[in-house]
Amino acid sequence: MRDYGAALRPLWTLDKSVRFLNHGSYGATPKALLEAQSRWRARMEAQPVRFMAELPGLLRDAATSCAAFVGVSPDRFAFVENATAGVNSVVRSLCLSRGDEILTTDHVYGAVRQTLRHVAATTGARLVEAPLGLPVASAGRIVDAIAQHIGKRTKLVVVDHIASPSAIVFPVREIVALCRDAGVPVLVDAAHAPGQVHLDVDALGADWCVGNFHKWLCAPKGAGFLAIADRALPAIHPPVISHGYGQGFAAEFDWIGTRDPTAWLCAPDACAFHDDLGGEALRRRNHTLVIEAAREIAWALKSGLSAPEHMLGSMASVRVPGATPCDLPTALRIHDLLLERHAIEAPLVPFCGAMWIRISAHAYNEAADYRGLGEALREIVAELAPG
Ligand SMILES: Cc1ncc(COP(=O)(O)O)c(C=O)c1O
After folding, report:
1. Is the dihedral of CA 331, 333, 336, 337 positive or negative?
2. pLDDT for the residue 232
3. DSSP secondary-structure letter at 10?
4. Looking at the domain that runs over 32-274, which CATH code has it been given?
5. What is the Cβ-side half-sphere exposure of residue 243, based on CA atoms within 13 angstroms?
6. Is residue 82 in contact with ligand 1, taking CB distance under 6 Å?
7. Which of 5, 59, 219, 334 could covalently link to 213 via disulfide, CB atoms 3.0 to 4.6 Å apart?
8. Does the Cβ of 113 fall within 6 Å of ligand 1?
9. In the predicted model, is pLDDT for residue 85 greater than 90?
10. At what angle do helices 262-276 and 48-70 cross, to 10 degrees?
């Protein structure tokens, strides 16, 4: 196996004094990709008018290579700023009405929940969250919970590929098959999937899939995508309507006003960077590293993981017992103390009545990054305990 861990750390600009265990929230972009972005910016600013004239072709070239990476044909692939923009495009393009139901789970990402709430409020539809709770015992439990909540009124299912608070890799293929059998369109939120698991959008069979290149593939921030299935579906429009309106999916999304497109133009380099680091071998190594670390933390805390190990990717959530009150201020306090005292950056999440720490592993992490984290959490929680 190649050298991962500290040997690769200089490829990133990450602060050397911090043990960075939160790749999941915003990714982290290596120097080489930041330099590639600077070169695109220099080219754009040398001759802005010519660059914008060339942009449609440049974007389609980038789309062709990124679409192949995520397993979809380029005419059904569009860049968006981020997964949130992709979800908004889909959900706000659908014609929902009073009495319709949008079904998701209680693990849905907060911003996506807000989008769904907004659409429900403006159309009279009802948002239904199938409760999964945490920990989740099996993949079948997730499929069953969704199946139990699909009804005659369900007009859309929105499901995570990898859930943010729990780090669980959902059985998306089975969920999509269930929805298709029930005749209900399904949107897969794969914000965390590319670079953390193998993603083959067409094989999933979802009606729509959104994802990010800027998380686990380390592209510059602002590189997301929206992919649509190869069948007759309602037209999906970008959140901003511009020159491309009515000219087809790709044309509508490729130009929605003057923007900095350089994150998208670097996305093919991000896919290549991932492959250069080992592709599947890197993903497997990251999974093993994060699971071993999670086991140690769970052992120190006498607690457990959010799900069986095979249901996790390059992130793992571990329950932090005794953190009271179990709320956001407590989570932030523990986070800040971990950072101040132990130089560890990792998110704490109050979720389903318990506190969870979510750790991540990328190429630049190694076992030493997680050492003592369980004990540090135990001490901090004891110190914060009332009385
Ligand atoms: C499951 C999920 N969906 C959507 C998002 C939003 O991603 P972005 O901020 O890139 O839109 C996140 C962010 O962490 C996420 O975890």
Report:
1. negative
2. 78
3. G
4. 3.40.640.10
5. 6
6. yes
7. 219
8. no
9. yes
10. 40
Ligand 1 centroid distance, CA of 196 (Å) = 14
Pocket test for ligand 1, best of 23, 26, 189 (most atoms within 8 A of CB): 189
Q: Tokens at residue 63, please?
A: 């789309």
Between strands 224-228 and 208-212, the pairing is antiparallel
Cβ of 188 closer than 6 Å to ligand 1, yes or no, is no
Per-domain boundaries in the chain = 5-31+279-384, 32-274
Q: What is the DSSP letter of 207?
A: S
Instruction: Tell me if 212 CB under 6 Å of ligand 1.
Output: yes
C-alpha separations of 283 from 171, 286, 341, 362 in Å: 18, 5, 30, 8
In what helix (H) or strand (E) does residue 45 lie, and over which residues does it extend? helix 31-46
Q: Is 158 in the pocket of ligand 1 (CB under 6 A)?
A: no
Q: Is 78 helix (H, G, I), strand (E, B) or coil?
A: strand
Pairing of strands 224-228, 77-80: antiparallel
Tokens representing residue 108 in the block: 């849905």
Atom number, ligand 1, closest to the C-alpha of residue 83: 11
196 lines ligand 1 (CB under 6 A): no
Only one residue has tokens 């929105």, namely 158
Tens of pLDDT, residues 118-153? 999 999 999 999 999 999 999 999 999 999 999 999
**237 Cα to the center of ligand 1, angstroms:** 20
Confirm or reject: Cβ of 342 under 6 Å from ligand 1. no
pLDDT at position 1: 61
Compute the distance from residue 60 Cα to the ligand 1 centre, in Å. Answer: 24
H/E run at residue 55: helix 48-70
pLDDT tens for residues 222-233? 999 999 999 878
Token pair of 127, please? 């948002």
* Ligand 1 atom at shortest distance from the alpha carbon of 162: 1
Q: Is the CB of 189 under 6 A from ligand 1?
A: yes
Q: What's the CA-to-centroid distance between 245 and ligand 1, angstroms? A: 27
Q: Which fold has domain 5-31+279-384?
A: Aspartate Aminotransferase, domain 1 (3.90.1150)
Separation of 110 CA from ligand 1 center, angstroms? 8
Helix, strand, coil in percent for the chain, rounding step 5? 45, 15, 35
How many Å separate Cα 226 from the centre of its chain?
13
The reported pTM is 0.98
